[in-house]
Amino acid sequence: MSATDLLWAGIGFALGSLHFLGLRTNAALFARSALARAACLQLLRLAATGAGLVLAARHGALPLLLAALGLLLARHVVIRGTGATA
User: Fold this and answer.
1) Is a pLDDT exceeding 60 seen at residue 86?
2) Which positions, given as ranges, span the membrane (predicted)?
3) What angle do CA 43, 47, 52 make, to 5 degrees?
4) How far apart are CA 42 and CA 1, in angstroms?
5) pTM of the complete model
6) In principle, which of 3, 12, 31, 49 could form an S-S bond with 67, CB 3.0–4.6 Å?
């Protein structure tokens, strides 16, 4: 595995961490009925994750797969770290 491959996995992990930590914040905003802020955060979260994955896809199939793997690993780490159940 080359350094570039590790970079794409790291980018995916960073994207996933931000995405799933943002999801926790987003759920709290919805629970407090802060719908406008929650909707904006939801849109920002999905756009950032989508843009990162599109960027990876533009570099090829392997970078996309590695970024997706990093994203899934981040999901596991964030859920385990927050004590939530999946």
Assistant:
1) no
2) 6-23, 35-55, 61-78
3) 155
4) 34
5) 0.85
6) 12
Domain boundaries, given as residue ranges, for the chain: 3-76
33: left (phi over 0), alpha (psi -120 to 50) or beta: left
* 3-state class (DSSP) for residue 59: coil
Helices (H), the chain: 3-31, 35-58, 61-82
Residue appearing with tokens 């981040």: 74
Question: So what's the pLDDT on residue 42?
Answer: 94
User: Among residues of the chain, what percentage have pLDDT more than 70?
Assistant: 95
Going from the C-alpha of 27 to that of each of 7, 34, 76, the distances in angstroms are 30, 10, 18
Q: Within 13 A of 10's CA, how many CA atoms are on the CB side? A: 7
Length of the chain: 86
| Per-residue model confidence as pLDDT tens digits over 52-81 | 999 999 999 999 999 999 999 999 999 887
Q: Give CA 51 to chain center in angstroms.
A: 11
